[in-house]
Amino acid sequence: QSWSRGMSYCLHSESHLDTGPIYVRENGKLHVVNRGAGGVQNVTPKARPFSLFSRTFSVELCMNREDDRARRQRTDHFIFTYTKEGNLRYSAKSLFSLVLGYISDNVDHIDSLIGFPEQIAEKLFSAAEARQKFTEPVTGLRALQKFTEAYGSLVLCSLCLRNRYLVISEKLEEIKSFRELTCLDLSCCKLGDEHELLEHLTKEALSSVKRLLLKDNSLSDAGLRRMTAPVRVLKKGLDNLLVLDLSCNPKITDVGIGYLLSFKKLNCLDISGTGLKDVDAVIKRLQMQIGLVHSKVPLKEFDHSNCKTEGWAEQTVLQWEQAVLEAMKPQDNLRSRVTALHFYGKTHRIEEVVKCTLVEPETKASGNLQFYKENVENCHLPLKKEVAGSHELKNNKKRALAEQERERTSKQKHLCLTVEDWDLLNTY
Fold first, then answer.
1. Are residues 311 and 211 in the same domain?
2. Please, are residues 15 and 46 in contact by the beta-carbon 8 Å criterion?
3. pLDDT for 64 beyond 90
4. Does the entry feature the keyword Ubl conjugation, yes or no (predicted)?
5. Using N-to-C axis directions, what is the helix angle for 118-130 and 139-151, rounded to 10°?
6. Residues 118, 263: one domain?
């Protein structure tokens, strides 16, 4: 009876741990003492709540088990801090942060974001951007399209690709996925009349563009005819255009300017450096039909100081450019090709392409051909009301022209190097 009283005490004790079945040997036989069986009389064990795991069981949070080896050392779900005594202390991140990180790792699998709160979507975009998910070739495009379809101009409202022709060639489909852009700068990209991006300008996705800069893009009358066809025929496409820069495209003639007359909302126009034959006739035509006045001084709308990339995807565009530059780092083969071109007498062709920002003969012949619409607040107008005897205003204009000329020449020298690289890449 002694063992029975001992076991009864253990079973009724509050501090007793659930250790499983208990066996007691008596007279050479084993007896089961839990649940009141095995020969134990008058013992009714206290009912205990059922527990799936023991108290010493621990749980480890794991994500993406297929890559478990690489993630054994990963501690993204913890925040590590040091106490005043120098001891390392960690605390778990919030459930929102963990879920946000998991979804951003698999952002390309999202079906749709239409109707999803934009505040949370912006955080999700930033988390995916920090993981450089949008730089991946296939999955990045798919993920970016989900955001642009749902949020449009919030993802990107202004895009500056000035002199970034390599980014255009590598990320053309991603660039075409942007919707509701209001400003697009494609200056000095040498796209030509047949480029796919210029055709995309006439699509409904870019009908919101109000500021389009196409300086130095090897455009001709045929390109302008194709670009303005939806506006002239269907009253769609770039119908909302307010500012247009077509400077430094010497193949554009008086015929091409006639296609621009369909842009009735146009407030500012720059056609400096084009191949116009009768400049006076063009000036009168623009003033009579769409109300554009020839400006005697350069307009601030065309100094490119206000054009920049704005939106959630601002860092994404910089990541694309950085990836392109990283891919071009090995310059040994490129230098050998330059040497080969010099050896085989093709230096003359390279020097012609280097002159990319301005075609000097056409610019000197036509002069400054910038136009603006009077009494329009959105257009940065020049100073028109001058005092006849005011030397101060004249000096200010001279200084402004000199500063813009220095800025233009400095940019021209900077752009020449990259255009040479671009020409070499095209020839091979």
1. yes
2. no
3. no
4. no
5. 160
6. no
pLDDT of residue 218 exceeding 90: yes
Spatial distance between the Cα atoms of 320 and 339, rounded to a whole number of angstroms:
30
Long-range contacts of 416-422 (CB under 8 A, 24+ apart): 416/354, 416/355, 416/356, 416/357, 418/163, 419/188, 419/190, 419/353, 419/354, 419/356, 420/350, 420/353, 420/354, 421/328, 421/334, 422/165, 422/166, 422/190
Are 286 and 371 contacting, i.e. CB atoms less than 8 angstroms apart? yes
Q: Are 296 and 329 in contact (CB under 8 A)?
A: no
Q: Who's near 80: CB < 8 A, 6+ residues apart?
A: 88, 89, 90
Mean pLDDT along residues 61-70:
52
Same domain, 206 and 296: yes
Closest CA to 114 of 153, 154, 151, 155: 151
CA distances, 81 to each of 72, 84, 89, 101, 120 (Å) = 20, 10, 5, 20, 27
Q: How far is CA 160 from CA 167, 307, 321, in A?
A: 11, 6, 12
The DSSP letter of residue 231 is I
- Identify the pLDDT of residue 33: 72
Classify residue 392: in a domain, yes or no. no
Say if 58 falls within a structural domain: no
Number of domains in the chain: 2
Does residue 144 contact residue 107 with C-beta atoms inside 8 Å?
A: no
CA distance 103 to 108: 9
Predicted confidence band of residue 40 (pLDDT cuts 50, 70, 90): very low
Which residue in 246, 258, 252 sits closest to 285, CA to CA? 258
229 and 89 in a single domain? The answer is no
| CATH, residue 207 | 3.80.10.10
Question: Same domain, yes or no, for 209 and 109?
Answer: no
Residue 118 and residue 91 in one domain:
yes
Find out whether 93 and 108 touch, Cβ atoms under 8 Å: no
pLDDT class of 426 with cuts at 50, 70, 90: low
Q: Identify the burial level of 17 via C-beta atoms within 10 angstroms of its C-beta, where 0-12 means exposed, 13-18 middle and 19 or more buried.
A: exposed
How far apart are alpha carbons 228 and 210 in whole angstroms? 14
pLDDT of residue 98: 87
Answer whether 0.90 is exceeded by the pTM. Answer: no
Contact 313, 155 (CB under 8 A): yes
